[in-house]
From TrEMBL:
UniProt keyword Electron transport present: no
Organism this protein belongs to: Oceanites oceanicus (Wilson's storm petrel)
Keywords on record: Repeat
Higher taxonomy: Eukaryota, Metazoa, Chordata, Craniata, Vertebrata
Chain residue ranges for the region called Disordered: 1-31
Name the record gives this protein: PP4R1 phosphatase
Gene of this entry: Ppp4r1_3
A single GO molecular function term of this UniProt record: protein phosphatase regulator activity
SUPFAM superfamilies given in the database record: ARM repeat
Classification via InterPro entries: ARM-like, ARM-type_fold, PP2A_Regulatory_Subunit_A
GO CC terms, sorted: cytoplasm
Domain of life: Eukaryota
Keyword Repeat: yes
């Protein structure tokens, strides 16, 4: 019951004190809470001490990162100030495994902290992970929809410009990365307007439809069919007409047989999923 109630704590602005001129005494007080024994929390926070990694366990920072969302849930968002410094330390840890662990759980932490704390403290860390190694980026990519849906609309739209960057990976043979991107884009269609879908997501979808790997292409056909459905249901019908014209131009009239085959598969998916009335399809 206590753990459930921590998700409903009202955010208090006084918890967000970011005054960098704290005295050591004030710094210590900023880590004090009354949910768990203070000695237990102090022991947990000390896991990020570099000397402990050398003398106790080289994996200790990774264990600390793995447990952090659970600790945050237990303490509640009103005690986030106790964990904030530790979280930022872990997010900049030299070991990519530590950063990867945080990247996979940042969406869960956002639910616990609420929109204000997420925008102030988690978004900068999230932005850093987007530019990290592929092993870290895959963590935020796998839960991209879960994280972005928690942000305000204006903040969410800022990421439209960065989605294209997911097409570039450290290793071009990492096709699962692009497959995951296609899966996430299907979910992201619900978060953006018809114009945003047409302007930003359409070019990425078309690029994925021409991918060298069959598994990526098959997910992309589903993405395009869902895009057609979404744009058809939007009040402005010009977007769906323009999209279908481009499908004909780009794939149906393609010189390569693979492009023409792609057009057939997209048509099949649109037809099977009832994305359009049959007269419109015709």
């Amino acid at each position: 019951q206590n753990m459930d109630s921590t998700l409903h704590y009202i955010h208090n602005d006084s918890d967000l004190s970011t005054n960098s001129s704290f005295s050591p005494e004030e710094e210590r007080k900023s880590k004090v809470q009354d949910v768990v024994p203070q000695a237990l929390l102090d022991q947990y926070l000390s896991m990020t001490d570099p000397s402990r990694a050398q003398t106790v366990d080289t994996e200790i920072a990774k264990h600390c990162a793995y447990s952090l969302p659970g600790v945050a849930l237990t303490l509640g968002r009103q005690n986030w100030h106790c964990l904030k410094d530790t979280y930022e330390t872990l997010a900049s840890d030299m070991q990519w495994k530590v950063r990867r662990t945080l990247a996979f759980s940042i969406h869960e932490l956002a639910v616990i902290l609420g929109d204000q704390l997420t925008a102030g403290d988690l978004v900068p860390v999230f932005n850093g992970f987007l530019k990290d190694l592929d092993e870290v980026r895959i963590g935020v990519l796998k839960h991209l929809h879960d994280f972005l849906k928690l942000l305000h609309l204006d903040k969410r739209r800022e990421y439209l410009y960065q989605l294209q960057e997911f097409l570039v990976t450290d290793n071009s043979r990492n096709w699962r990365f692009r497959a995951e991107l296609a899966e996430q884009l299907i979910l992201l269609l619900d978060l953006y307007s018809a114009r945003d879908i047409y302007d930003y997501l359409r070019p990425i979808a078309f690029s994925l439809c021409a991918d060298k790997v069959s598994s990526v292409r098959w997910i992309s056909y589903k993405l395009v069919s869902e895009m057609v459905k979404k744009l058809y249901m939007a009040s402005t019908s010009t977007f769906v007409t323009d999209l279908m014209s481009e499908l004909v131009e780009k794939f149906c009239r393609c010189r390569k047989w693979s492009g023409r085959q792609t057009f057939v598969f997209i048509c099949q998916t649109i037809s099977e999923d009832d994305c359009l009335p049959m007269d419109q399809f015709a």
